[in-house]
Structure formats: structure tokens, C-alpha cells
């Protein structure tokens, strides 16, 4: 017993030393960990602080005129520093043009994505992918000029309609829809397709009943992100739809106002030169309307993102 006791004690001491070496923190690693923690929190602050500042400024400045009168009235018959007028016509134009652009771009983008994932092989698929990548980087003003020049051939120079603006926005939306839908379709397991084929289901029916149903949540989220991408565009709308103070629900007849163009036009007008002592004239009324319209646009984009979250939760595949 006495001969084996030193050996056992040595083994225990060795194990304790090894455990201490493994659990002890190296001072250099500890400093590096603290430095990386500071850098990560600093990067987070650099990203969040400007966003919070922007939201706080817009809410603080825009809440002054963000009321029912502003949301339900247009600028028709409003001039000077009158304490009247709202952005109802701009909100209607934004929703109508964006909805029309969505109707145009979503079917095209979804069909192109299905082709690239399910059928695309060879040079045509590579060329399609290349042109989609190129279209992703097109400046918005170029899309507006393209739509304006295209419709000028048929309607004459100077034509400004809501449908022209919708076509310009669809040029910007299509590559985003293609990319998002393509990635969602790739996430569908091939086992689901093979199981459907094994049951004798045609490929087109497998795509409709299996692939699209499985990826509908991600596709919807991608479409809403594409809508949020174009809903704040100003330059192509200003070129194609112009400026209007009246309410217009028909994108095929007359000019239409959108919230980004409304914000630009109000801010461009600047302070109102009111006469001294005039009680019915507000000097900063144009700025107040611009801030309120900016707040309304942010609310619409936030609602779209909220709808996307809800759709993802409702339609995502449930694990059993």
C-alpha cells in the first residue's frame, strides 16, 4: 500500500495541474476578448444610434401635424401659409403605384426564379442570372428615364401617368423579387420533390403544390422587402408621374402624387413669406407637412415589415 500511495498522489497532482492549466484564463486572451467585446458593442452603437436619432427626429418633428385632418385631406386649393392641407392624395398615389408595380413585378420575378431553380441549365440560365445581377445595381433615375422614354414612344413626349411610374418601380423590383424567390426555392429539400415524383406527380404540379407551398412564407417576405425597397423612391416618380395636388385613384389617367415626391416638393418650397401680423399664415407650414409625410411613410414601411413577419409566422412549415 505504501508503495502505491506516492504514485496515486502524483497522478492526482498531475490531473489537478492539468485541470488548472485548462481552466485558467490566459491574460492575453482575456485582453483580446475584452477588446473584441468593446469593438462589437461599439459597432452596434454606430449602427443603432443614427437610426434611433433619425426615428426620434422624424417622430418629434412630424407628430405636430400628424392628425386626422392631415391624413384625410389633400393639397387642392391650399396655397401660401394656410393652416390646411394634408397628404391623403400622396398616400393614395403611393399605395396605388406601389400596388400596380407589385402586380407587374411579382409574377415576372417569381416565374424567372422558378425557371432558374427548376429548369435553368446552360447558357440561357447563366445569361439570365447575369442580367438579373446587372439590374440589381441599376440607379433608380435610370429606371425612371427608361419608363419615360418607353411610354413617350406610344403616348408622346411629356406623358406623365401613374402606370409609367409603376413600370419604373417594377424595373427596380423585379431583380429583388427574383433573388429572394430564388433563394427561398433553393431551400426546399429535394426529398420533397423526389417524393412527389415517385408518386407520379408531374413536375409543374410538384412546383405548384409542393415547392411553392413550402416556400410561400419566404417568398412573401421577399416580396414585401422589394416593396419596401421601392416605396421610398423619389427620382423615378418625379420623372414619370409628376406632381399633383388632387386625389387620383386611377393610375391610367393623369398625374399622381406620392409621399416621397410630396416630401420633396414641400421641403423645396421652403418658408412661407407671411406678412407681419398675419394670424392665418404659418411660416414653417411646408416643413411641418414634409416631416409629417415622412412619419407617415415610415409608418407604412413598418406596417409592411410587420405584415411580413406575421405572414412568415403563419405560413412557415410547422414541425410535427
Automatic annotation (TrEMBL):
Signal peptide residue numbers: none
UniProt superkingdom: Bacteria
Single GO MF annotation: phosphate transmembrane transporter activity
Coiled coil: none
Chain ranges of the ABC transmembrane type-1 domain: 91-308
UniProt entry tagged with the keyword Secreted: no
Membrane topology (UniProt): Multi-pass membrane protein
GO cellular component: a single term: plasma membrane
Keywords: Cell membrane, Membrane, Phosphate transport, Transmembrane, Transmembrane helix, Transport
Any one of the GO BP annotations: phosphate ion transmembrane transport
Subcellular localization, as worded in the UniProt entry: Cell membrane
Keyword Mitochondrion: no
Alphabetized InterPro entries for the sequence: MetI-like, MetI-like_sf, Phosphate_PstA, Phosphate_transprt_permease
TM stretches of this protein: 38-59, 87-117, 129-155, 161-178, 210-231, 290-311
Gene3D superfamilies to which the protein is assigned, alphabetical: MetI-like (1.10.3720.10)
Similarity-based family: Belongs to the binding-protein-dependent transport system permease family. CysTW subfamily.
The protein's role, per its UniProt record: Part of the binding-protein-dependent transport system for phosphate; probably responsible for the translocation of the substrate across the membrane.
Name of this protein: Phosphate transport system permease protein PstA
Organism field: Promicromonospora thailandica
